[in-house]
Amino acid sequence: MIRRTISAVVISALALAACADDSATSDEPDTITLVAYDSFPAADPENPIYLALAEFTADTGIGVDILISGDPGTMLSKATLTAGNPEGDVMWGVDNTYLSRAVDAQVFDPYLATGASELPDEFTELVPNGEATPVDFGDVCVNYDIAALAAAGIEPPTSLADLALPEYAGQLVVENPATESTGLAFLLATIAEFGDDGWEAYWTALRANDVEIVDSWTQAYYESFSWSGGSRPLVVSYGSSPPFEMLYATEPLEAPPTAVVESTCFRQVEFAGVLRGTDAPKAARQLVDFLITERFQREVPLNLFVFPVNPNVELADEFVRYATIPDRPLSLDPAAIDAGRSDWIDRWTDIAIR
Amino acid sequence: MDRYRDPLNRLPRWFVAAVAAPPLGFLLLFYVWPFATLAWRGLGVDAIVDTLDRADTWKVLWFTTWQASASTLLTLTLGLAPAWAVSRFSFAGRRAFLSALTAVFVLPTVVVGAAIVAVLPASLDHSVWAILGAHVVFNLAVVVRTVGAVWEQLPPELEEAAATLGAGPGRAFRSVTLPLLRPALAAAGAIIFLFTFTSFGVIRVLGTAGRSTIEVEVWRRATQLGDLGGAAVLALLQLAVLAALVTWSARAQRRHTHTIGLQGALPRRRPIGRQRWWVASSVGGALAVVMVPLLALVERSMRTDGSYSLAAWRSLGDDEIRPGLRLGVDPLGALRNSATTALWATLFAVVIGGLAVIAITALGRSGRLLDTGLMLPLGTSAVTIGFGMLITFDAPPVDWRASWWLVPVGHALVAVPFVVRAALGVGRSIDPDLRAAAATLGAPPIRAWATTTLPFLRRPLATGAGLAAAISLGEFGATSFLSRSGSETLPIAIERLLGRTGRLFQAQAFALSAILAAATMTIVMLVDAGAAFERREDHARRP
Amino acid sequence: MLGVHDITISFEGRPLLERVSLALDAGEIVALLGPSGSGKSTLLRIIAGLIVPEGGTVEIDGADCTHVPTHRRSVGMVFQDEQLFPHLSVGANVAFGLKMAGMAARERRRRSDDMLELVGLGGFGDRQVGRLSGGEAKRVALARSLAPTPKVLLLDEPLTGLDRELHDRLADEVAAILRATGTTAIWVTHDAAEAAAVADRIVRLGAGTSS
Question: Would residue A86 count as lying in a domain?
Fold first, then answer.
């Protein structure tokens, strides 16, 4: 009798605890924080990104604050430092070169968005255990100044190997992979193309061909690149640079002034994830789900300057006509990138700089 | 103060403690604690051994040191002539010239870098000369202002006396003027060395790979490679070098200052005869050096596709540039944010710095410790401070990561040393007899101290406020770390615009830079004008 | 020894000195007396070469030196506020002109000690300039300007700012030293009694007087 009473008490206590647990989840804060890198648009209620998020709030009752955390590397380093006690609830924009570092540091609670099954395999393959959710992609490619090459009577290069030919001597400017993500992507492209035993010889040849190496993309694109007033008609930039030169020209243009060498493109995929230690895991997951919906994804190209992973989104006319989205971009496994990065950069520095 | 050690009239202990507490607390809370937390987390035997073992570390240390030394010497040399012209002569546009120099000080490094590249012949574009050139352009104002302030108090009769004793102009300058300027040169040199040793933006924009400073390495290790330990070791290495330098320069300045009886600013004359040529050429030369970046950015904000247009300026107020197309950066909002942040940062810096000056003068030997301590944030990389704050202020009751005031506090941390430098000299030179006089007239110690000290501190604190505002307006390193969406400041907005493909982004960035420069010039001019106005009033009051 | 002929200069468009002439024999001490604003100091500075006159000539030892820079004129000057070099010791101040003349260090030291002895400050060589009293500073200034034996010594109100007693004593002493060293000197003052006490001859400036 007594025994039964005790077990009854235990059971009801458990039930109570379950109830309490339930009510805790519905007691989640009604506003969550999305942590993003510094090229995410600043808070502006009229910005399409924010209009989309406002719709999310209207539908779910969950408010979204944006927290800009620095360049992508800084953002991840901060997240690593605060893993378990995060600055926000969801993080946008860890790319495939950084993903495995984030996973190793347990920055995320593994979560693959509902609806991710609709995404192309190319993206979901990168997160076989659902570590995070792919949200956008872009390519880093060699761009060229069409008019400058034509004026010099040089044909545009068609491959990475071409860049080491004498006719392209002194024409290319690249970023330092130690300090700029586009530079790292380009180094990875050469490793993907020439393999672990070939890329060093390639860079030796590039150096002999008078490649210019600068510290930042800004410097490469806006100072050294001939289209911006510099002297080099070939630059490592984004696959989306030509359509953006059209869209954001100061005076309307007939056709893009620059173009992309398609076979040099290295694919960067960015991910969003639920930050481990969030006090609103349910709401955070709902937000990640929303981030890959058509509603949000269609704002991605013009406001985040990358392409949507959601295949149902229709791209603006400029992109369809002028953007290069290679079918078979160069790529490397995220784990391999993370394991090799430091060593590759050191070896590259020995070849390209010393 | 030393003469005032009699126990009857000195300031009560509790009062000195109360004045010293806020600056000390500020330093401990926002600098020492975060820094210690980060060092505690990152430092380990492995990190130290690894870092010191890497050949790269020493290569970077070597490049950092020699480029900083070369930049400092070059800037001091080039700054002497304009400092002479500005301190000895009055001429049209003198104040505008000084403000222009100061405005360049806060320009985004990208802008100055671009201007340098535009001016230098292509063969020198990415040589070490580009880095030195940018450092000169940035820091010329420091020499002209710091050295000029002392020079205008040196009576020209000293050089005349040397002439009557047989010294030619060059000899008189070398054997009389230069030694007397030495403390000012040392102070300016120390500040410039500090800035160039920790150079970040200039190196990021102009440094080719292989020319890196410790500051850039700290940033790279911490953020790009996730190697916190290595970053912490390098940050400490940098701090050690700079702490040694600051201590040495403070001692050198003290050794020299007490022997020179400065006279207060002497009236400036209009240049006559051949002087006119010298003044014009030294001011013109300096102006050319700093106007190049200013003009370049105005030009580039209007240059589009080889022709000129105002498209970037027209679209400034409205970030929807074409239907459906937005910049993602709100320029006017950024201007507002910059102004608000600068206001708060200035307020924090002046209050903390002002109290610090009072405490340092009242405390004697331990005051020097506070002085040195407050200088340290200048020599600590923003990345280190930012990371430190992030992992320190992350739990109640100090969960301040999302607080609006963290950015102004970060700016104030960097600005306080300037406020202290601007006001400390005056604070130290107030005649203790003034206080004695007040005491004999019946004023109790605190009252006597307040009536004789505070009025003298007003003007130097105003100068310090101007510098603090300029620093806050231009600050980039710490802000990019602490800034939240919705509170982006002008330099951040400029950097973001320049990070994108598209001519319009570039032109807008240069337009915003021009606005930043104009805002800074206006603020500095207002502060200068205020100081000049008070000086005139003082002259009028004198019998 | 010193000849000043028809010196003319104006200040801010107003004539200050008009065709002023003055001549001194070797070893003569002339007091230049006049109210403030009469151009006495300006005349001294013209003789020293610190100001170029609009008209007229300055002759020293019979040679026209109107356009010779100050440091080649061999004129000494005692400034109103002494203008001692604050970064140098008393001895180094006195030896400054000797160093400019290229004298060897040991000889310089001896000569500056002698000069300090002469002005009554023997043993002051290593002191700091900032610690001197008003009278001591004036003596050092005198020793400094006499050390390189200038052809002419110019004294610009050398005794201002001293109390009466010290002023009178120093006036006698300085005049005695000038005589003892056989120095040709122009002594500018606005104090008639001082002028009478020190000078062989008094020249009044202002009110259009010239001599």
Answer: yes
Considering only residues 440 to 459 of chain B, which have any Cβ-Cβ distance to chain A shorter than 8 Å? Answer: none
Residues A148 and A193 grouped into a single domain: yes
Interface test with B, best of A34, A78, A250, A337 (most B CBs within 10 A): A250
What's the alpha-carbon Rg for chain A, to the nearest Å?
Answer: 24
- Encode chain C (211 residues) as per-residue pLDDT tens digits: 899 999 999 887 888 888 999 999 999 999 999 888 888 889 999 999 888 899 999 999 989 988 888 888 899 999 988 889 888 899 999 999 999 999 999 999 999 999 999 999 999 999 988 888 889 999 999 999 999 999 999 999 998 888 888 999 999 999 999 999 999 999 999 899 999 999 999 999 865 444 4
For residue A254, the domain's CATH number is 3.40.190.10
Q: Which of residues 113-142 of B touch A (CB under 8 A)?
A: 113-114, 117-118, 122, 125-126
pLDDT recorded at residue C12: 77
Q: Which two tokens stand for residue B424?
A: 């400390």
User: Across-strand partners of C63?
Assistant: C60
Assign residue A58 a region: left if phi > 0, alpha if psi is -120 to 50, beta otherwise? alpha
Considering the domain architecture, whether residues A340 and A222 belong to the same structural domain is answered as yes
Which tens digits make up the pLDDT trace of A35-62?
998 778 876 777 889 999 999 999 999 9
* CB contacts, 8 Å: B260 with chain C: 86-87, 130
Q: Give C81's contacts in chain B (Cβ within 8 Å).
A: 155, 157
**Residues A41 and A106 both lie in one domain:** yes
Q: Is there a contact between B105 and B141 (Cβ–Cβ < 8 Å)?
A: yes
Overall fold of domain B43-228+269-299 = MetI-like fold (1.10.3720)
The CATH 3.40.50.300 portion of chain C extends over: 1-74+150-211
Q: Is the pLDDT score of B123 beyond 70?
A: no
Least CB–CB distance from C128: residue in B169, B172, B259: B259
Q: Do A126 and A317 meet the contact criterion of CB atoms below 8 Å apart?
A: no
Q: CA Rg, chain C, in Å?
A: 17
The CATH class of the C1-74+150-211 domain is alpha beta
Question: Inter-chain contact B164–C128, Cβ cutoff 8 Å?
Answer: no
Contacts B41 to A, Cβ<8 Å? 81
3-state secondary structure of C9: strand
- How many domains, chain A? 2
* Interface residue C148 vs chain B (CB under 8 A): yes
Is A155 inside a domain boundary?
A: yes
Residues A260 and A172 in one domain: yes
Residue ranges of domains in chain B: 43-228+269-299
* C-alpha radius of gyration, chain B, whole number: 24
A41, A81, A238: residue with CB nearest B390: A81
- Give contacts of C96 with chain B, Cβ < 8 Å: 162, 165, 167, 175
Same domain, A52 and A191: no
Same domain flag for A182 and A115: no
Chain B positions in Cβ-Cβ contact with residue C144 (cut-off 8 Å): 165
Chains A and C touch (3+ CB pairs under 8 A): no
| Top-confidence residue, B158 or B526 | B158
> A157 is in which domain, residue-wise?
139-267+326-352
Instruction: Please answer yes or no on whether B502 and A244 come within 8 Å at the CB atom.
Output: yes
Candidates A83, A66, A90, A39; CA nearest to A287 is A90
Read off the tokens for C60: 């020293």
Strands B325-326 and C2-11: unpaired
Q: Is the pLDDT of residue B365 over 80?
A: no
